[in-house]
Amino acid sequence: MIQTLRGTKDIVGSEIFYWHHLETIARELLRRANYQEIRTPILEATELFARGIGETTDIVNKEMYTFLSKGEESITLRPEGTAGVVRAYIQNKLQGIQRLWYMGQMFRYERPQKGRQRQFHQLGLELIGSADPRADGEAIALAYEILQALGLQNLLVSLNSVGDHTDRMGYRGALVDYFTPYLADLDPDSQQRLQRNPLRILDSKDPKTQTICQSAPNIWDYLQPESRRRFDRVQALLTDLKVKFRLEPRLVRGLDYYTHTAFEIQSQDLGAQSAVCGGGRYDRLVAELGGTDTPAVGWAMGLERLILLLENLQTLNPPPIDFYIVSRGERAESYALVVWQQLRQAGFQVEMDLTGAKFDKQLKRADHASAKAAIILGDSEADNHTLQVKWLGEGRQETTTIEDLFTRLAPRKNHD
Ligand code: HAM
Question: What CATH number is given for 15-164+224-313 in this structure?
């Protein structure tokens, strides 16, 4: 049997209700903040990610699904959304402050485990065009509030400033000086990164390297006064917004484009893959990808991880339907199809039994579909243009007409 690829999965059965629930809440909160949805291609030129995310990151080095197209162009399935949104911002000459969000599949060739897949979904937000620390506050507060609105309680925001280019030049030198004596003890990736991008060493998952990192110089000692003031202001704003955070000087994130603010939101209810959201400011990316110098801030949430949490929090069942139509005999079955059409067009939610089974079997299915009522049609109903309606909650049964049903129930035309 052909199976799904490792690290990919089907969303089947009642799981989809959790996705819909999540999407409804996120859309509503983003609508209130006047964010607009943007949809960019899943396929992009490989160079976009190599330049955007950084050549020395794990994502670009090890995790991208990259292939040559028939025209020998190097193409990559997007591993994240920010680079594509920034490309779209530049290419479509979007101007001024842009508040954008997106939702969709991302692809990373990682070792799959609970909450970590090779094809996964992100909900992302990008606020492009403002360097104001209030933009950082806006973006982080929206992430926090979406997670809270979903019912997640044990949330922890880890916050850092990775400074700007100048701050990092000083810090870089200090890191090289610090790590050089430990060169032999670092993991092979970190050894390679020592000269090219020593900040990445702080993001290593290797236990021995992590121990060495614990006494590494602190980025905060290399922030110039202006960067420091900025960092302090973001913290003050988050406090005003009642976002609980913890300062984390070694948080560097897995992508190279960040400047100043970097943050992650963890849920203490998740196991190993506890990061439900990650993001930060990326003031140089637009220029890096060929646009005019434009500051920006954003984040993305891993939706599979959120779904795992939601499933633990509550049980979502399919919403009940209005009518389940049961019929038997050729004339009745034809009549059933017309009744089905009329009820639907009047705004009711209806399902018609197609099995042709005995009435009692069909009625059992009506119960199963959580219908408010079963409409029972035999040949006499077809001949008289009447309906037998059985109200399943009460067990009451009546003979009526479709017109009478419409008048009594004042159907919600087109779900208004
Ligand atoms: P990221 O931290 O690489 O950031 O990913 C964001 C979130 O996506 C993670 O916190 C996690 O919840 C989820 N995620 C990542 N990889 C996987 C995976 N293999 N399986 C399941 N979930 C995963 C970004 O992608 C940036 N583009 C965020 C950003 C937007 N920064 C600025 N704007």
Answer: 3.30.930.10
